[in-house]
């Protein structure tokens, strides 16, 4: 079972001789739930991984059969990380099934310590909170890239925001400055520089190109 997204009732759990084997993209018991890859990026974790485990009636609570680790790079998006985990996780799942077939598999109960939950990512939750720190904004944007995509509004225009770059500039949260070297938006700490943005109904473009065409004023604020 991979990315099934629902709990199996006890009568169904009892059907397979060796139980149901699940591949989950975290190092359990960390980030149980629907969006473990996104949660790890948003939290700023340095390392995550994949786990194979036996399904129980609880959400991702079953004993672990195998794990593989994966470093999270400073510029990783959820999509980048998921692509690597899909490869290493598939190899882990194959190794786990081989171990079960040979009788060498050993299921280890999950620790009661280090439990965390990764709630489902929605379009609403992907909205950027400019009152967060620059580092948190950076992680948030990367955690919801490519889907559903981070977004904000400027006036009555909704923009999808691609990964940003941290800067030394200091601005009030949400306040925007357009310069020759980029478009900067304030956060609770330093400003971030926007890379690519996508106005609703239009193609992805450089933020600076869009800002010049939109003729943003000094009072423009991202919300």
What are the secondary-structure elements, in order, as H or E? HEEHEEHEHEEEEEEEEH
Number of strands: 13
Q: What is the tally of helical segments?
A: 5
Sheet-strand content, in percent, reads: 15-25%
Structural class: alpha+beta
| CATH homologous superfamily descriptor of the largest domain | Formyl transferase, N-terminal domain
Main sheet: strand order: 6-7-12-13
**CATH class division of the largest domain:** Alpha Beta
Largest sheet: 4 strands, antiparallel
Count of individual domains: 2
Shape: elongated
In the predicted model, the low-confidence regions spanning at least 5 consecutive residues are none
CATH topology of the largest domain: the name is Rossmann fold
Rg over alpha carbons: 21 Å
Describe the fold and architecture.
This protein is of the alpha+beta class and 223 residues long. It has helices at residues 10-13, 36-43, 78-102, 134-143, 207-214; strands spanning 21-24, 32-33, 47-54, 64-71, 117-118, 150-154, 157-161, 165-166, 176-179, 182-185, 192-194, 196-199, 205-206. It folds into two domains: 10-118, 3-Layer(aba) Sandwich (Rossmann fold), CATH 3.40.50; 124-214, Methionyl-tRNA Fmet Formyltransferase, Chain A, domain 2 (Roll). It contains five helices and 13 strands. A hairpin with a 2-residue loop joins strand 9 and strand 10 (182-185). It is elongated, with a radius of gyration of 21 Å. The model has no long low-confidence stretch (mean pLDDT 93).
């Amino acid at each position: 079972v991979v990315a099934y997204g629902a709990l199996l009732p006890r009568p169904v759990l009892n059907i397979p001789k060796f139980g149901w084997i699940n591949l989950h993209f975290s190092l359990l018991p960390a980030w149980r739930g629907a969006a473990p890859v996104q949660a790890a990026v948003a939290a700023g974790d340095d390392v995550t991984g994949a786990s194979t485990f036996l399904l129980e009636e609880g959400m991702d609570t079953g004993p672990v059969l195998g794990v593989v680790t994966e470093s999270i790079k400073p510029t990783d998006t959820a999509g980048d990380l998921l692509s690597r985990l899909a490869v290493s996780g598939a190899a882990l799942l194959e190794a786990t099934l081989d171990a079960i077939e040979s009788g060498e598999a050993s299921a280890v109960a999950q620790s009661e310590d280090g439990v965390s939950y990764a709630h489902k990512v929605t379009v609403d939750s992907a909205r950027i909170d400019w009152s967060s720190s620059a580092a948190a904004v950076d992680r948030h944007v990367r955690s919801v890239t490519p889907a559903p995509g981070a977004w904000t509004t400027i006036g009555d225009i909704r923009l999808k925001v691609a990964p940003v770059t941290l800067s030394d500039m200091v601005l009030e949260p949400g306040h925007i400055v357009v310069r020759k070297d980029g478009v900067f938006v304030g956060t609770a700490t330093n400003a971030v520089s926007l890379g690519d943005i996508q106005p609703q109904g239009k193609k992805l473009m450089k933020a600076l190109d869009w800002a010049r065409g939109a003729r943003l004023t000094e009072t423009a604020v991202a919300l």
